[in-house]
């Protein structure tokens, strides 16, 4: 039986020329995709092993309410996360609203007035600027007497070790290391690179708490920052580890002492991890985490496909088509607002939810310029689902990520190209 895939692509709006271009690119990616599948298999076994080790049972999937005392599912899931990520302890909660909130909880729980927060990797992601107080905001760390310093990366995106050594001082309490690029065009750091940086910092001042923002990076490699020396590792459940099923939530894993301090900030001094009802999300959290390695693999295939498509068309892409991957984000510098908007229109048009909606740039909380977001997702804001977003500012780079399945990620990239062709930006 012959399957007419081209006919279905035509029904969805993909032209013969765009499909042919994509098919030509795909022929070169078999080996890359096989490597991604190998990593997914290894990470899948890690998750299953952790679930079996901690005796996940049907009772773990049940809901709790009120104070949430003795929530078996919640407590067991935190043990699963800790084991999977090679950490002593974990805090995995629906009360954590997003990745920025998780980072804020970890920072606020472990920093005190007079302490200094240090970033050895340059400016953090936009939404963290207000948490720190780089941009004035009510309730920032700066308002509570926590100072901040940073060192810039070298031109090639590597760490400026001499500057880092000079910057660390008696007040330096915590170093925050953002793994992913955010709205920057720098490379994402590998887990090995992060481990080397942590080792360097600890050699200078052993008591510095090293925290890694691991958003978008979970299960991309076979090891995580918490396995190479990170004292704290933080992420969002509506990204990789939620597997597209978690409706909300974030996690903090690491050393018991630092996770406990974060828990006291999340709930209350004296209560910590003991309270916090799960309200029926346990099943989604468990099942999403179980699916996360293969879902992440699908998103990675989409990122690699996008890099190869747009590099072939002459655009700057980070990472490039040949580089190893350390997160699911693909940056494409499209060089104009018109091209950025057309790309995002394509991602939205390929979505299962709100495909008929046209995204437009607008003001977003936590950002200092208009941002366009394409996200026709089952979970609002889920960036493990097919999505793309971009600040409307030079160099006019768009950041693509996600795809719960490889076929959907493929469609999204083809549709982005289709919209660029229709807008007259690209000629095939």
UniProtKB/TrEMBL annotation:
Keywords: Lyase. It comes from the Bacteria. GO terms for molecular function: lyase activity. The keyword Lyase applies. Pfam families: Met_gamma_lyase. InterPro entries: Met_g_lyase_put (IPR009651), PyrdxlP-dep_Trfase (IPR015424), PyrdxlP-dep_Trfase_major (IPR015421). This is Methionine gamma-lyase family protein. The lineage of its organism: Bacteria, Bacillati, Bacillota, Clostridia, Lachnospirales.
């Amino acid at each position: 039986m012959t399957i007419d895939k081209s006919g279905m692509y035509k029904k969805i709006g993909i032209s013969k020329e765009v499909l042919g271009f994509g098919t030509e690119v795909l022929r070169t990616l078999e080996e890359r995709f096989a490597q991604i599948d190998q990593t997914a298999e290894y990470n899948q076994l890690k998750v299953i092993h952790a679930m079996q080790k901690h005796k996940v049972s049907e009772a773990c999937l049940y809901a709790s309410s009120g104070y949430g005392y003795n929530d078996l599912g919640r407590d067991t899931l935190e043990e699963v996360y800790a084991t999977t990520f090679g950490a002593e302890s974990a805090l995995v909660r629906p009360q954590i609203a997003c990745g920025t909130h998780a980072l804020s909880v970890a920072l606020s729980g472990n920093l005190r007035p007079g302490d200094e927060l240090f970033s050895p990797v340059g400016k953090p992601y936009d939404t963290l600027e207000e948490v720190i107080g780089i941009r004035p905001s009510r309730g920032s760390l700066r308002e509570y007497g926590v100072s901040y310093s940073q060192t810039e990366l070298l031109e090639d995106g590597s760490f400026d070790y001499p500057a880092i050594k000079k910057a660390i001082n008696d007040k330096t309490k915590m170093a925050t290391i953002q793994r992913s690029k955010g709205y920057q065009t720098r490379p994402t750091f590998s887990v090995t690179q992060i481990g080397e940086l942590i080792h360097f910092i600890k050699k200078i001042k052993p008591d510095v708490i090293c925290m890694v923002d691991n958003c978008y990076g979970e299960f991309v490699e076979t090891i995580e920052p918490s396995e190479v020396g990170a004292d704290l590792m933080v992420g969002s459940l509506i990204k990789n580890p939620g597997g597209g099923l978690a409706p909300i939530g974030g996690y903090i894993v690491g050393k018991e002492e630092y996770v406990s301090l974060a828990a006291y900030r999340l709930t209350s001094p004296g209560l910590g991890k003991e309270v916090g009802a799960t309200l029926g999300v346990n099943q989604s959290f468990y099942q999403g985490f179980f699916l996360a390695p293969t879902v992440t693999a699908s998103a990675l295939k989409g990122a690699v496909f996008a890099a190869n498509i747009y590099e072939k068309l002459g655009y700057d892409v980070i990472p490039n088509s040949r580089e190893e991957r350390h997160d699911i984000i693909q940056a494409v510098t499209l060089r104009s607002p018109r091209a950025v908007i057309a790309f995002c229109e394509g991602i939205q048009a390929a979505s299962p939810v709100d495909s008929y909606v046209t995204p437009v740039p607008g003001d977003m909380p936590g950002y200092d310029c208009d941002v366009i977001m394409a996200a026709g997702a089952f979970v609002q804001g889920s960036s493990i689902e097919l999505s793309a977003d971009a600040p409307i500012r030079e160099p006019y780079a768009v950041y693509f990520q996600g795809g719960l399945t490889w076929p959907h990620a493929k469609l999204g990239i083809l549709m982005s190209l289709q919209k660029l062709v229709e807008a007259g930006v690209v000629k095939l």
